[in-house]
Design a protein that fits this description.
By secondary structure, the protein is mainly β. The chain has one domain. Strands 1, 2, 3, 4, 5, 6, 7, 8, 9, 10, 11 and 12 form a twelve-stranded antiparallel sheet that branches. About 30% of the residues are buried.
């Protein structure tokens, strides 16, 4: 009995150590990884936005605004709403959300509008997503537009 329990526990530990890779199709099928409760100490996101507004920057993680509570994850790069480029990636049991902005210009995409993958390990999250033909808005001009978004991110806990 003790040997069986040991083997079962060993198998569970081995499975937990394997990185989880998820595609946008997997997200739609409900296979979004659960990210354990953690805070983040380093990371960055390479953000490229083309279309009605442009961003091409490497943005450092905002350590104070990035965390996972075991169900939801908020990965904030830069300061949301600031004049500088910024990115917020949210991971819920239902979808991965992407919000990019620079000042008042913003664009938000959900998992079904994006393709890519996310890898989660015991101490890091990394992802690459492309979101095409995303509606954007600039309240200064009152204009709607379309953008394409590509992100490569890392977050270390």
């Amino acid at each position: 009995m003790r040997q069986s329990l040991f083997k079962l526990c060993s198998a569970a530990v081995a499975l937990a150590a394997v990185a989880i890779s998820i595609s946008a199709a997997d997200q739609r099928a409900g296979k979004i990884p659960v990210i354990s409760a953690r805070s983040y100490v380093s990371g960055s996101a390479q953000v490229t936005v083309t279309g009605s507004f442009q961003i091409n920057e490497d943005i450092a993680i905002n350590k104070q605004a990035s965390f996972s509570d075991g169900e939801m994850t908020w990965l904030q790069y830069g300061a949301s709403g600031s004049e500088a480029a910024n990115l917020l990636v949210t991971v819920s049991p239902d979808e991965v959300g992407v919000n990019v902005g620079r000042g008042k210009q913003t664009a938000t995409a959900g998992g079904e509008g994006c393709t890519g993958n996310m890898d989660v390990t015991g101490n890091s999250v990394s992802a690459h997503y492309k979101c095409l033909n995303v509606t954007s808005y600039d309240p200064r001009s009152g204009q709607m537009g379309k953008v394409n978004i590509e992100i490569h991110l890392t977050a270390k806990s």
